[in-house]
Amino acid sequence: MRERGQITLVTGGARSGKSALAERLVARHALPRIYLATAEPRDGEMTDRIQQHQRGRGDGWRTIETPLDLAGALRATDGQGVRLVDCLTLWMSNCEGRADVEGLVVTLRQQSCPVVLVTNELGQGIVPANALARRFRDDHGRMNQAVAHMADQVWLAVSGLPLRLKPSREDPDDPI
């Protein structure tokens, strides 16, 4: 498996096991681990979720909070280890419709160290009742497609099980 520059996208529904799968993929690399967190603790429930993720990861991670400037955080940390971005959905939401997806994709193509990105699969649910929510779902789907297209490998988490959608070019038969 190529150690440098590999881009991996992990997608799935809520509570599907995306983050746990992404952490296992990061653990495959013999590099320092950097967690690029896009969540903001805006209420008690989100604070609890963030703390639960932190406890689940354990020690050995450097965490950088980057709710808005994800591309800048990726550039600043390139060469320092494997990065786990959790998650693209919250990043896009934080940007309030002004997420620079094209800039993110360009930045991802320039990385010399691996990046594992987590995102939600929103397009398989109920069609939202209002125009703003539908626009977000559509923009999010286009973002996921753009990142998946350029990624070296793509995984789908379903009920805690990994399903490889796009195998790595280096080792297409390697199971997780």
UniProtKB/TrEMBL annotation:
Q: Which GO terms describe its molecular function?
A: adenosylcobinamide kinase activity; ATP binding; cobinamide phosphate guanylyltransferase activity; GTP binding
| Presence of keyword Nucleotide-binding | yes
Matching entries from InterPro entries are given as: CobU/CobP, P-loop_NTPase
> For this chain's UniProt record, which GO biological process terms are given?
cobalamin biosynthetic process
The metabolic or biological pathway listed in the UniProt record of this protein is: Cofactor biosynthesis; adenosylcobalamin biosynthesis; adenosylcobalamin from cob(II)yrinate a,c-diamide: step 5/7; Cofactor biosynthesis; adenosylcobalamin biosynthesis; adenosylcobalamin from cob(II)yrinate a,c-diamide: step 6/7
Which EC number applies? 2.7.1.156, 2.7.7.62
| UniProt: GTP binding residues | G12, G13, A14, R15, S16, G17, K18, S19, A37, T38, A39, E65, D86
What are the catalytic residues?
A: H53
Q: Which reaction does it catalyse?
A: adenosylcob(III)inamide + ATP = adenosylcob(III)inamide phosphate + ADP + H(+); adenosylcob(III)inamide + GTP = adenosylcob(III)inamide phosphate + GDP + H(+); adenosylcob(III)inamide phosphate + GTP + H(+) = adenosylcob(III)inamide-GDP + diphosphate
Which CDD domains does the record associate with it?
CobU (cd00544)
Keyword annotations of the record: ATP-binding, Cobalamin biosynthesis, GTP-binding, Kinase, Nucleotide-binding, Nucleotidyltransferase, Transferase
Q: What does this protein do?
A: Catalyzes ATP-dependent phosphorylation of adenosylcobinamide and addition of GMP to adenosylcobinamide phosphate.
Q: Which family does it belong to?
A: Belongs to the CobU/CobP family.
Q: What is this protein called?
A: Bifunctional adenosylcobalamin biosynthesis protein
Species in which this protein is naturally found:
Paracoccus liaowanqingii
